[in-house]
Amino acid sequence: MIFKVIYSFFLKCWNFPTLRVVRLFVYHFFGFRYIWSMIATPEIDEQLYVERFKKYNGLISFMRRKPSSFVFWFIGIYSTIYSLALGSHQITENRVMDTFVKLQTQIGFKPDQYSLRQIAGLSNTKTTSVPKFTQPVTIKDAILEIGRAHV
């Protein structure tokens, strides 16, 4: 029942003239038109289709459309986001390890209470989680710096 009410409200809002202008603005100027053109490529001109059909002896009779390149774009963007998350993780991990090595050296020369307190604080330092390529949630956590205690 509630879903029918929400759906009817959505349809009324979707077809409202003022929102139609906003919808078209967002569709054209935020890149959704281009993304949709990558997913649903337009059909090839009939004359070009006949020429290709004759040229390749009917081997590409199924090629009435240009192949979609959305999968390649998606993989490229996902790989870039993964690389950024991995870089963020490496930077925070290196920062913690550099601090640990400095404290270790300092304690080796002159152990004091200040250095020992810093080690205790360093063990509670948070680093970003390790992103895994096959798990998008870990990539999101690494980018948003949802960390874990470094031990």
Task: Describe it.
The chain is mostly helical. The protein folds into 2 domains: 1-30; 69-151. Helix content is 68%, strand content 4%. It has helices at 2-14, 17-29, 32-39, 46-55, 70-109, 113-123, 136-143, and strands at 126-128, 147-149. The radius of gyration is 28 Å and the shape is elongated. The two termini are 52 Å apart.
Low-confidence stretches: none
Helix content range of the residues, please?
Answer: 55-70%
Tally of domains: 2
Order of helices and strands: HHHHHHEHE
Largest sheet: 2 strands, antiparallel
Overview in brief:
The chain is built from seven helices and two strands.
Features:
151 residues, mainly alpha, two-stranded antiparallel sheet, 7 helices
What does the secondary structure layout of this molecule look like, with pairings?
Blueprint lengths: L1 H13 L2 H13 L2 H8 L6 H10 L14 H40 L3 H11 L2 E3 L7 H8 L3 E3 L2
Antiparallel strand pairs: 1-2
Helix pairs in contact: 5-6, 5-7
